[in-house]
Write a structure and sequence with these properties.
This protein has 18 helices and ten strands. The chain is of the alpha+beta class. The chain has one domain: Cytochrome p450. The protein is globular and about 55 Å long. 43% of the residues are buried. Bound molecules: protoporphyrin IX containing FE (HEM). The site of protoporphyrin IX containing FE (HEM) has 27 residues, from helix 13, helix 14 and helix 18. This is Cytochrome P450. GO terms for molecular function: heme binding; iron ion binding; monooxygenase activity; oxidoreductase activity, acting on paired donors, with incorporation or reduction of molecular oxygen. Belongs to the cytochrome P450 family. It comes from Actinoplanes auranticolor.
Length: 403
Amino acid sequence: MTQDVREDYADPAFQADPHPMYAQWRATTPVRRVRLPSGVTAWLVTRYDDARQALTDPRLSKALPVGQATDNALPPPIGAAVSRHMLAADPPDHTRLRRLVSGAFTARRIEALRPRIEEITDDLLAAMAGRDRVDLIDAFAFPLPIQVICELLGVPAADRDSFRTWSNTIVAGSANREQLPGALQAMVTYIRQLIAERRAHPGDDLLSGLIGVRDEQDRLSEDELSSMVFLLLIAGHETTVNLIGNGAWLLLDQRERWDRLRAEPALLPGAIEEFLRFEGPVETATFRVATEDLEIGGTTVQAGDPVLVALLAADRDDARFPDPGELRLDRAQNPHLAFGHGIHYCLGAPLARLEAQIAFGKLLARFPGLRLAVPAHELTWRPGVLIRGLQSLPVVPGPAAPA
Ligand code: HEM
């Protein structure tokens, strides 16, 4: 690597609001070396065009280990049980692993879940009615997607609080370095028990289907099976919660947005795309590693160097989006990168979009007077560089309209 390492990425002010820093980096050092809180040094890609190119460049591998990553220092059996998944694979393994589950995530299959998602949403909102104050993350944004992914996979939702803790620790990565091995160990033990139980008592859920593929057709190894469950649980836990949380915050922080969406519900699908662009749940895509020397945006990246694409920065690039720092509920063109791009484009995008449409549609209708319970500057953001989401979102629900 040729540039100096900059330390700004670990600055607490950056965690609170990374956008001014990203704007500066896009303008001055669009592909820059950063040292992450874990101690890993990586290239951070911040411009839209460079980001799209990097996300599709086959010379940036998802399968190679990130050499200096301290987070990877796990006992090998545990590491293998969580890391043999499609997001850590290149073709042809990636193609095989993704194909095994893609049928369950098509727009048509996801649309069939609508009545059940509506039911879960209604129940959660009913439980908020009559309360003086609730944390919208705990009461709504978290349980909704988790209940859905648990039912889809065939995981008992009763266990969700335990794996919320493990999962939060895992995605915070180095920000929670001491707890990380314990959380991974607990998650692996849990997933292995789950697989054993479902093997003994199969159902018609996704997990039972995957166990069948493993046992009968031998197209999946045991580590690939546990890693698939791990990936889907983590993806189901850590992402949509923050689309709902970040979107709700954006609407409540400037109340006229909330009122406008109530008055013009047809804007909702586009507004959700704008939440994804403006304050998407995935701050940086996962690590890629250069398999050979290559150029990104005129900067030479050497073979073996880790590369991170800052989706949040790319999606505010004024070379691609007019007035990118303005949240426009009716933005016409919105080719954001919040779900990634290329072969690793988010498998769960149709599910996340449907959940968000139902969640916001019903929240706006049921609690017309919902408002923040604390001043916006008191809200804090989750640590780590992967996820952009609020720690909590205290709100006053106000009177509930009839369901
Ligand atoms: C708003 C919610 C979501 C956002 C913003 C999001 C974002 C992303 C992004 C950016 C990637 C690509 C990462 C990379 O290339 O490094 C990705 C991949 C993936 N996501 Fe999502 N995701 C969301 C919800 C979900 C849900 C609900 C699921 C599943 C239940 C899911 C499953 C996956 C899987 C399996 C991959 C890996 C795909 C592959 O490697 O081919 N995601 N997601």
